[in-house]
Each structure stands twice: as structure tokens, then as C-alpha cells.
Amino acid sequence: MFGDRLRNLRKENNVSQEQLGDLCQVAKTTISNWENNVTQPPLEIVTKLAEYFNVTTDYLLGFNQDDLDKIAKLKSACQEAGLMAGQDFTLEEFEKAMMVVETLRKKDGEPEKKN
Prior knowledge:
Shape: elongated
CATH superfamily of the largest domain: lambda repressor-like DNA-binding domains
Number of domains: 2
Radius of gyration: 17 Å
CATH architecture of the largest domain: Orthogonal Bundle
Number of strands: 0
Largest sheet: none
Order of helices and strands: HHHHHHH
CATH class of the largest domain: Mainly Alpha
Oligomer: single chain
């Protein structure tokens, strides 16, 4: 999702991969990898891209309000359980949290099993 949105924003704004690479101080191939969902940028760069294209980081990352609510609940639970390194998720913790959110999203779409 991130890569598709980045590519669309870049093309809509007539920005080349080289120009975006200069902005983010990365190679054109790195931009290509982001757009093809091979890799994802660090959160600092996601913020820079959101500011540059005048969109939210949530939009770039493909979140909706339900996802954000689940992340907030998960973050609170992780903090209470002492499972977070700091006040905010590290990139690795964030990726793990997103896997949990995706699992919850799938589970919410399935009918409840009766015992």
C-alpha cells in the first residue's frame, strides 16, 4: 500500500525518482524499492515525504481510523506489559504491531466460532 501511494503522489506531482531520492538523501533504486514494496523507509523519512506531498503519514501508510484505534490500544497494552523499548514503537516493534493489527482485521471479518 505504501509503495502504491508514494508512486501515485510522485507521479501526480511530476517528481522523478531522482528528485525524490535527493530530497530523502537516498539513491533512485531505494525509491524504486519503496514504490515496489520491496522495502519501506524509516519513519523519519515517511514523515518527510508526508510533509513534502502535504498528506498525512497515516495516508501514506494506508491506515484508516479503525487501524489507528487498534494501534493505540496495542501500544497502551505493550507499554503496560513493558514490551516497548520507549514511549513510541521502534520500527521493528511497529512492524510487529502492524502484523497484529492485520490479524485482528482478518479476525473481525470472520464470523465468531461457537464452542
